[in-house]
Design a protein that fits this description.
It is built from four helices and 20 strands. The protein is mostly beta strands and 343 residues long.
Amino acid sequence: ELYKGQTNCPYWHGVFGGIYLHHLRNAVYEHLIKADRIIDEIEYKDQDGWAGVKETDFYNRGAKAVILENKDFFVSMDPEAGGVIRELDYKPKSANLVNTLARRGEFYHKKILERINNRITEPVAIQEAIKTMDKRIKNGIFYDRYLRSCLVDHFIDKDLGLKDFADCNYTDRGDFAGAPYIARTENKGAILSREAKVGDNLVAVLKRVSIVSDAEIEISYILKNKGETDLDTFFGTEFNISMPFADSDRYGYEADKKGLGRLDRAGAVPGTGSFSIKDAQHDMGVEFMFPERPEKVWYFPVMTVSQSERAYDFSYQSSCVFPIWDIRLGRGQEARLTIKWQV
């Protein structure tokens, strides 16, 4: 399983897509997670209900990540990158539900933009002339500011629209997304905290993440206004979810058990108590439960623009699910929010 997880194609970007191709990355994760499961069976052979929390330099950069793990989950949290969940493996299905990429600039994007804007003045190389282009690319190429992970925390203006958020055409009112959090561990979980300005107000954000069952992660937030004036803003946290079969027709969105369409759709749903990605084949889905109902939930596909031998293509990477709460706090007041993430 380890050797299968070392096949070279998904580790680089070649003419056939490489790392941008979801199914290649998914296959690597599948085999590496199976290797982990073999280790678990040996290491915890006589331990029922084992669970562990540890801090380690998982990303090999001189800063500690927090790992939560039991027989069903492997959760890697990165305090330095915004206290986000960068990997969530559901071991029974050997699947990483955060198997995604951020939208980053590639050298050939300049060529694409020149073609779109008809600014090409020099002869086109034959390998460029034969490339076809997905028509949707003409709507624009957008780049992410942060990792496409889970628990990316944002304070946003109340008049911000879904399209501007999805296209990264907005100003974050706070300084939390992508910024360092302080982490500490506890039994079966981790606590991450940061204080920063939201507008003119100092705001403290504390989030606790824990494994509470063989199929559920619980996330709780405490937001405290430590400023001198009232705080009136929207707060939301991103979940960038990648199902094993990408945006296959088998998957669809639901809110409060009502269907919303396939994963290639974008939309908004108000005041829902739950939001799900359902699998028509009943193999594996995910559901977010909101005891404190958000003002709304935005959802949209994250697509990268990559090249293959004969085309410039959109490649699906993940589905962004973004619950947003209306936060109104006087001086010293707190808001408490809970999200139950069920597999």
